Amino acid sequence: MDNWDDMRVFLAVARAEGLSGAAPSLKMDPSTLGRRIARLERAVGAALFVKSPQGYALTDLGERMKARAAEAEIHLTHARDEGQCDATALTGQIRIGAPDGAANFLLPQVCAAIQAQNPALEVQILALPRVVNLSRREADMAVTVSPPAAGRLTVQKITDYQLHLAMRADAPPLRCVADLKERQIVGYIPDMIFDKELDYLDVIDADRVQMASNSVAVQLQMIRQSGVGIVHDFALPFAPELRMVLTDAVALARSFYLVRHTSDRRSDRLARFAQALRQGMQEEVARLEYAACLTASPPI
Fold first, then answer.
1. The pTM is what?
2. Within 13 Å of residue 22, how many CA atoms lie on the same side as its CB?
3. By the 8 A CB rule, do 257 and 155 touch?
4. 3 burial via Cβ count (<10 Å: 0-12, 13-18, 19+)
5. Phi, psi at 175, each rounded to 5°
6. C-alpha distances in angstroms, 222 versus 131, 185, 188, 217?
7. Long-range contacts of range 288-294, CB-CB < 8 Å, 24 or more positions apart?
8. Which domains occur in the chain, in start order?
9. Where are its TM segments located (predicted)?
10. How many CA atoms lie within 13 A of 32 on its CB side?
11. What is the pLDDT of residue 300?
C-alpha cells in the first residue's frame, strides 16, 4: 500500500465484507470504493478479495495484509493519542455502539455534554438491535446489557438500571399480574431478542405479545397508544402520560457494560472518553430514574 488512505479503505471493506457496508464510515459511495480497491489490487499485483453478489471475501493474501494493516492502524492510533496526552480537550471521531434503549434515552444527553466540553470532538452513536462487532471496528467502544464471554475485549460495568411495567395513566387500573391476560401486551419480537437479558415474558407470566418491535423506542410509542409493557425507568420521563404499575409484583434490574477492544487499552484518548461516558451514564440513569419514581402509581 502506498499510503494510509489506501490502508483505511482496504480495512473498511475487509471488515464490512463489502462496498456498501464500508461506504458510510468512509463517506464514499460504493462505486468509488470499488475503483479504489481495483486500483489497489493492480498496485499489489494480486487479488485481495474474492468478489461475489454476497460480498467481498478476503483472499489468503488479503487476510495477511489485513492483519498487518490492523497492526499499523493500532500504532497510528496510539501515536495520535500521544500527541493528545498533554492536551486538555479531546479531538477526532469516536463512535459508540449501543442497544437502542441506551442510544435513544441516555447517550444523546451524555454525549452532548462531553462534546460541549470538547468542541473538536466528533461523537457518533450507532444504535443497533444486536451486539456491535468491535473486532470489525464497527465502533470504538460499545455499551451492552451482558458482558461478552469471548473475544479480545476489556469490560467495565457502567451502572445498574431498573425496569417496571408501565401503561397510560388514564387506562383502567391493574390489580394483579393475572389481570395482564386481559390486556394488550407490548414487547420484543420473540425471535429477534439478541440478548437473554431482554427476554421479559416469563417475568409477567405471558406466552406472547400482541404488539411487538425489536426497538425499545417503538415499544414505548406503542404503550403510549394502548397496552402495557416492560419499560426502562429512565425512559419514562420521555413519556409523561405513562405510569409504572404493579411495582411490588414486577421489578427488574439489569446492568450496562462498557466494552472496548483490548488493543485500545493504551489509548489515552479513548480511556479519557470512556471515563467521561461511564460517569455521565451513571449520573443520567440516576437522574431519570429519580424523576420516574416521582410519577409511579402507588401499589394496590
1. 0.72
2. 22
3. yes
4. exposed
5. -95, -35
6. 24, 10, 11, 9
7. 288/105, 288/106, 288/233, 288/234, 288/235, 288/236, 288/237, 289/161, 289/162, 289/233, 289/234, 291/236, 291/237, 292/233, 292/234, 292/236, 292/237, 292/244, 293/233
8. 4-82 (1.10.10.10), 92-158+255-287 (3.40.190.10), 159-254 (3.40.190.290)
9. none
10. 9
11. 46
Pairing of strands 92-98, 141-144: parallel
Q: Which residues contact 214 (CB under 8 A, 6 or more apart)?
A: 129, 188, 189, 192
Residue found by looking up cell 411487538 in the block: 212
- Tell whether the model's pLDDT for residue 82 goes beyond 70: no
What's the rounded Cα separation, in Å, for the pair 126 and 142? Answer: 9
pLDDT reported for residue 1: 46
List CB contacts of 39: < 8 A, sequence separation 6 or more: none
Q: For position 151, what pLDDT does the model report? A: 73
Amino acid at 129: P
Q: What are phi and psi of 282, to 5 degrees?
A: -60, -45
pLDDT-derived band at 280 (thresholds 50, 70, 90) equals: very high
